């Protein structure tokens, strides 16, 4: 198997894990590895450590860049937040951007983060302000200042 083909397969496995929200350990499940071996005996899937330390960070960097580029080309963005609690009673806050591109609604999750404080309006505003994708990154790519209303 060529290096290019192996990297393509790694990208597809990463997409499977990310897009379907599987745990990183899924790549080490015997049935998953057996399925991939059946499809291509020459392919060795990545380990959980490879997913954690290489593939997911690379995926994140590319996706973040793509989102910044896309958002830099829109005039208006609406942000929504959703506070929720996991089965384990952990509290999370998800921030999502909603916008139009060529008349079609798009939305991108900007961040999901564990929240250890009461989810008051002030805490939510602080979490949004501390988002991984900042308005400075988006505006800076267009050379404009984003206003607040």
Describe the protein in words.
The chain is of the alpha+beta class and 149 residues long. The chain has 2 domains: 3-66, no CATH class; 75-140, no CATH class. The chain contains 5 helices and 3 strands. It has helices at residues 3-19, 30-39, 48-72, 121-129, 135-140; strands spanning 78-85, 91-101, 104-114. Strands 1-2-3 form a 3-stranded antiparallel β-sheet, with helices on one face. Strand 2 and strand 3 form a beta hairpin. Helix 1 packs across helix 3. The longest helix has 25 residues, at 48-72. Residues 141-149 have low confidence and may be disordered. Keywords: Metal-binding, Nucleus, Zinc, Zinc-finger. One of its GO terms (molecular function) is zinc ion binding. InterPro entries: RNaseH-like_sf (IPR012337), ZnF_BED_domain_contain (IPR052035). It is found in: Nucleus. This is DUF659 domain-containing protein.
Shape: globular
Oligomer kind: single chain
Distance between the termini: 55 Å
By DSSP (H or I, 4+ residues per run), the number of helices equals: 5
Record the strand order, biggest sheet.
Answer: 1-2-3
Portion of residues in beta strands equals 15-25%
- Over the alpha carbons, how many angstroms does the gyration radius reach? 19 Å
Structural class of the secondary structure composition? alpha+beta
Mean pLDDT: 84
Number of domains: 2
Q: Which residue ranges are poorly predicted, with pLDDT under 50 across at least 5 consecutive positions?
A: 141-149
**Element order, helices and strands?**
HHHEEEHH
């Amino acid at each position: 198997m060529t290096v290019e083909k192996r990297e393509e397969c790694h990208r597809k496995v990463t997409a499977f894990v990310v897009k379907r929200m599987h745990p990183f350990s899924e790549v080490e499940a015997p049935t998953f590895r057996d399925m991939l071996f059946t499809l291509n005996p020459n392919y060795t899937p990545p380990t959980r450590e490879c997913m954690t330390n290489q593939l997911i960070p690379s995926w994140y960097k590319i996706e973040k860049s793509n989102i910044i580029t896309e958002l830099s080309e829109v005039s208006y963005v609406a942000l929504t937040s959703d506070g929720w609690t996991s089965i384990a009673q952990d509290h999370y806050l998800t921030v999502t951007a909603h916008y139009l591109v060529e008349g079609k609604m798009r939305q991108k999750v900007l961040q999901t983060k564990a929240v250890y404080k009461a989810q008051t309006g002030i805490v939510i505003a602080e979490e949004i302000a501390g988002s991984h994708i900042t308005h400075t990154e988006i505006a800076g790519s267009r050379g404009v200042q984003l206003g607040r209303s």
